[in-house]
Amino acid sequence: MRLRLLQFLSLVLALSIHFALTQDSGYSADPRPPNVVLIIGDDMTYGDYSFLGHPQIQTPHLDKLARESLTYRRGYVPASLCRASLASIVTGLYPHQHKITSNDPPLPAGKTGAAARQDPAYQVAREAMIAYIEKSPTLPRLLGQHGYASFQSGKWWEGSFSRGGFTAGMTHGDAARGGRHGDEGLKIGREGLGPVFKFIDQAVADGKPFFVWYAPMMPHEPHNPPQRLLDKYKSKTPSLHVARYWAMCEWFDESCGQLLDYLDRKQLAENTLVVYVNDNGWIQNENQPGFAPRSKRSPYEGGLRTPIMLRWPGKIMPRMADDLAMSIDLAPTILTAAGLKPTQEMPGLNLLDESGVRGRKAIFGEIFEHNAVDIHQPASSLQFRWVIESQWKLIIPGPREGKAAMELYDLSSDPGEATNLSGKQKDTAARLLRMADEWWPGR
User: Fold this and answer.
1) pLDDT of residue 204
2) pTM of the full predicted structure?
């Protein structure tokens, strides 16, 4: 009887310790390092999912992922431009820290398109921009130091996959062969997921934990979905351009479903951390191809906001969260889950640390020119800084916006950012401006 009592008390103590350890972190310890699958949507607005209430777009696979994940509905990227945003995801740094602020170098005087890309000075600047990724800690490089195999697929601007620290990948990055933002990697998703599946199988055979960068150029243009999906949405909107974009969103969802189903079939889901984020938003122009104002490349919600999901069965408790989260949080979150320490330069938080996330006062970001002004001086290309504290959002014009006025919005009552309150809420605007200056003065 005494022995049974001691065993019972030991069990209670063990459960109490486990409960205490997992309350703040949101996950439990596991002796095996988790596999990591990072899914990055490309040019998709934060509300364009059925689980977030879109009345037409159907995303059943991502809906299921959201139900199984810690899902942050108020996620943000620091910059609403593809390359800067992706570089922040892979490094855990703000653009002004890693210095990859723009999609391309400055255009040579009087040259655009192929003529610009063939200009010797442009090519030198392009190489200098890519070199910045080798100066920053990256997720695949840090994970690789601890035995991870890693695979790049989809969007990737920084030359060959190897320059980012990946052990394998699809992108060669050779400008002479059309390398710019993904080249061969851009086939993923649109032409199946065979290369990703082959990599996963090899990593498992080698007994290595793996990291997958799955960043298909979807629903990004070209908006050329399968006819069956286009036909489905053509009757739901008078705009063919919108129908094409909606169909692309579901096609992207299908590709995510193929990847998640593969993890299930191979019995890998249990010890795989799946992370989801978008690189930036997109609001489809109803009258022509391309994006509408206040979406991609803008400091508004339509360009910056994204759902962020984290799924690790048995380790992360699924729930919907409305705390502020950022894509720069993903690197420290993934590293911590893998039993590693984030670098001192990484300003983000571990999103599995509930108390840390709830204690965050504000988030920040920055918008830069598509073509950099000076690739070595981030402030030279700065259009806007922005800061969000609770429901308040302040947009601060940078050097490239001349004498544009600051904009202050109450996102709780004005999520569409229609009413600028900077003139009526001067104290709030001044306080947020001081916070932004303390974060990065933009010069």
Assistant:
1) 98
2) 0.93
